[in-house]
């Protein structure tokens, strides 16, 4: 009961701050609201006993990606952006399309829920170390993809340096 | 601690991926050695790359002929080194080696002779090799991305060239989009089965009713993503632009090696994961194969740029490969056999043709228009005759290797009763003969546009000799290849 009310609070905060992100004129304000969204999503992870995801959410998204956003915002001129109309003229059509899509998705979930055989979620013991379980799966069952992913990151780095280098030699 | 070590690192697993490990180490080595090389010594990077590829090939052959367990499944059932994987890995390694050989002189002429080029080639080959033996959705997807990311960077390798940049951009955006589609399909498959292993997915799909709408959605998104990767119509739009803008040696590479890697994931997903629904996806593949052959062959008729021309020619070959997949969907082992033989043969004949095209690139002459090949017979008769052999093989004329590839495709179609597809394939082979002979007419009947001498190099010579030898030898004496491909087809049936 308590968990449910906490979830509802977090969900409302996440959704409303998400709306705030796209309605603010000043990009810096949008970024601040995005932080609120990410924090509340992190809270929902914690509510599901996913401590690892919670930590990753805070460290990577709130910590890392937000700084990246702020860097980009520093590179553009905030004053001129704030004066521009925030929406294109087709916002009414866009809103209609979003509502139709939302209805479709809800109908799909309502009708198709049996197709995905979702097991009843077992409540993990509170003392179970969730992060350790993630590590076990990652470095045991999924060892190979983790290793290939490290190569993928290396290639991305080499490629980025190659593309950004001013000139050869 | 020791216990933990044994739990996570199992020695046989790492022996099974030894070829990939060797290639990765050589790729990283090239990145480091490159700093110590003078500009005129950059060809040593190519030598290092060839050494690495040689070691990988030796490792693969050793596994094939010495190991007691020719079919090994490791990494928690997510990686399988069977004859199917070894066959495709050998094709990938050989194709990459030939691309390294034809790259050296080209990169010198373009003045972008950098070590990163060879390192990315090797890492891309590593991605393809994992594609050949991945039996898990996550392994397959990450390997696919590793392969693709290297290709995007290599396509844009001529940074001073606007067409190269544009090609890389288009290739990257469409590639990312198609990866999204593929991933969506994969997520649905995971939703059905609760597992990312193909064997579990097959078992879970077997429980579902035929014509299940959700399976259709998963299948269509999955196939759309894969069709993008193998450049099948209507998902081919990136091909001509990427082929035209990329450095010619990379055009040769992406027209061959990634096709092998992409067909590896295509065959494994369809013939293992989606096996219970083979009647359903066969319909989709039939439609796409007809469209691919039609558009590829008809669009190639009117091209004037030779790299674009080979782009469309590649599309038409993908159409023929899909015909083999259609036969394999009916449980016909010859269909899979045909695809494997075709991939092998196609790699050599296409790379041979590209080696001749690269020869036309000289200082101040780009040499990628059809007219640049004019009068080749008068200037370099040997090269013109080589090109003639490759073109005959691409068109599928006996006694070249291309005929053997097409023969098995048509044989498998007739065995499974797809007569109309076989007739269509033969009809388009005639169209293909016409457009390949446009090049022959230019080479033998027209006058040369310039008098700048053609210079071969050791790499190009070796590449031409090898590709010619394979193209002719398989055409005359195909038995060894057929036997090899027959053992390679076993694990999927």
3D architecture notes:
- The complex is a heterodimer of chains A (169) and B (493).
- Chain A has helices spanning 2-23, 27-47, 51-75, 78-83, 91-112, 130-141, 143-164.
- Chain A has 2 domains: 1-84, NADH-ubiquinone/plastoquinone oxidoreductase chain 6, subunit NuoJ (Four Helix Bundle (Hemerythrin (Met), subunit A)); 129-169.
- Chain A is an all-alpha fold and 169 residues long.
- Chain B is mainly alpha-helical and 493 residues long.
- Chain B has one domain (12-492).
- Chain B is 76% helix and 1% strand.
- Chain B is globular and about 70 Å long.
- Classes of the chains: A mainly alpha (169), B mainly alpha (493).
- Chain A binds chain B through residues 112, 115-117, 139-145, 148-149, 151-152, 154-156, 158-159, 162-163, 168-169, and chain B through 7-9, 13, 17, 24, 31, 39, 75-76, 78-79, 111-112, 114, 116, 119-120, 123, 126-127, 130, 136, 138-139, 142-143, 145-146, 149-150, 152-153, 156-157, 159, 191-192, 194, 212, 214.
Task: Provide tags for this entry.
heterodimer; A: mainly alpha; Four Helix Bundle (Hemerythrin (Met), subunit A); 2 domains; 7 helices; 0% strand; B: 493 residues; mainly alpha; two-stranded antiparallel sheet; 76% helix
Question: How would you concisely characterize the structure shown here?
Answer:
The complex is a heterodimer of chains A (169) and B (493). Chain A is mostly helical. Helix content of chain A is 77%, strand content 0%.
């Amino acid at each position: 009961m308590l968990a449910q009310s906490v979830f509802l609070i977090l969900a409302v905060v996440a959704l409303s701050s998400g709306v705030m992100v796209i309605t603010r004129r000043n990009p810096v304000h949008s970024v601040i609201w995005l932080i609120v969204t990410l924090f509340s999503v992190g809270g929902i992870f914690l509510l599901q006993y996913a401590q690892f995801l919670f930590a990753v959410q805070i460290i990577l998204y709130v910590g890392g990606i937000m700084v990246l956003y702020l860097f980009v915002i520093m590179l553009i001129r905030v004053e001129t952006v704030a004066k521009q109309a925030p929406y294109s003229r087709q916002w009414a059509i866009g809103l209609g399309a979003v509502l139709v899509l939302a209805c479709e998705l809800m109908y799909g979930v309502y009708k198709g829920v049996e197709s995905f055989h979702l097991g009843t979620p077992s409540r993990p013991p509170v003392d179970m170390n969730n992060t350790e379980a993630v590590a076990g799966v990652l470095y045991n069952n999924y060892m190979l993809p983790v290793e290939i992913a490290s190569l993928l990151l290396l290639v991305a780095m080499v490629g980025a340096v190659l593309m950004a280098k001013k000139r050869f030699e | 601690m020791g216990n933990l070590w044994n739990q996570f690192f199992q020695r046989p697993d790492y022996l099974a991926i030894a070829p990939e490990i060797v290639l990765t180490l050589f790729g990283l080595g090239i990145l480091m050695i490159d700093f110590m090389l003078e500009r005129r010594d950059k060809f040593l990077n190519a030598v290092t790359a060839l050494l690495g590829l040689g070691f990988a090939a030796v490792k693969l052959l050793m596994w094939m002929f010495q190991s007691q367990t020719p079919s090994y499944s490791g990494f928690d059932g997510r990686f399988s080194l069977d004859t199917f994987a070894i066959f495709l890995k050998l094709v990938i390694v050989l194709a990459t080696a030939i691309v390294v050989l034809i790259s050296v002189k080209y990169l010198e002429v373009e003045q972008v002779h950098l070590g990163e080029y060879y390192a990315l080639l090797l890492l891309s080959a590593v991605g393809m090799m994992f594609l050949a033996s991945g039996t898990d959705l996550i392994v397959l997807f990450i390997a696919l991305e590793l392969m693709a990311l290297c290709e995007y960077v290599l396509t844009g390798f001529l940074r001073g060239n606007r067409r190269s940049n544009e090609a890389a951009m288009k290739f990257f955006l469409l590639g990312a989009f198609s990866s999204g589609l593929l991933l969506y399909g994969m997520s649905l498959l995971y939703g059905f089965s609760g597992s990312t292993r193909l064997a579990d997915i097959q078992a879970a799909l077997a429980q579902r009713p035929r014509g299940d709408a959700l399976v259709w959605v998963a299948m269509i998104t999955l196939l759309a993503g894969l069709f993008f990767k193998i450049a099948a119509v209507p998902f081919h739009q990136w091909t001509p632009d990427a082929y035209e803008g990329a450095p010619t040696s990379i055009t040769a590479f992406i027209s061959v090696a990634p096709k092998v890697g992409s067909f590896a994931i295509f065959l494994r997903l369809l013939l293992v994961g989606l096996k219970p629904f083979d009647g359903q996806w066969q319909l989709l593949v039939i439609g796409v194969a007809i469209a691919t052959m039609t558009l590829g062959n008809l669009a190639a008729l009117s091209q004037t740029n030779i790299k674009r021309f080979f782009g469309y020619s590649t599309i038409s070959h993908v159409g023929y490969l899909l015909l083999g997949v259609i036969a394999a969907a009916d449980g016909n082992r010859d269909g899979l056999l045909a695809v494997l033989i075709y991939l092998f043969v196609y790699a050599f004949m296409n790379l041979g043709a590209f080696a001749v095209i690269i020869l036309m690139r000289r200082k101040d002459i780009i040499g990628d228009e059809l007219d640049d090949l004019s009068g080749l017979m008068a200037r370099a008769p040997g090269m013109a005759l080589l090109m003639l052999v490759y073109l005959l093989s691409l068109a599928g004329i006996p006694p070249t290797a291309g005929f053997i590839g097409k023969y098995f495709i048509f044989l498998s179609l007739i065995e499974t009763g797809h007569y109309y597809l076989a007739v269509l394939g033969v009809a388009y082979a005639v169209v293909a003969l016409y457009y390949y002979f446009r090049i022959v007419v230019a080479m033998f009947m027209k006058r040369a546009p310039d008098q700048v001498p053609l210079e071969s190099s050791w790499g190009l010579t070796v590449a031409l000799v090898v590709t010619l030898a394979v193209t002719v030898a398989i055409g005359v004496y195909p038995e060894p290849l057929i036997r090899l491909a027959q053992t390679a087809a076993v694990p999927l049936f």
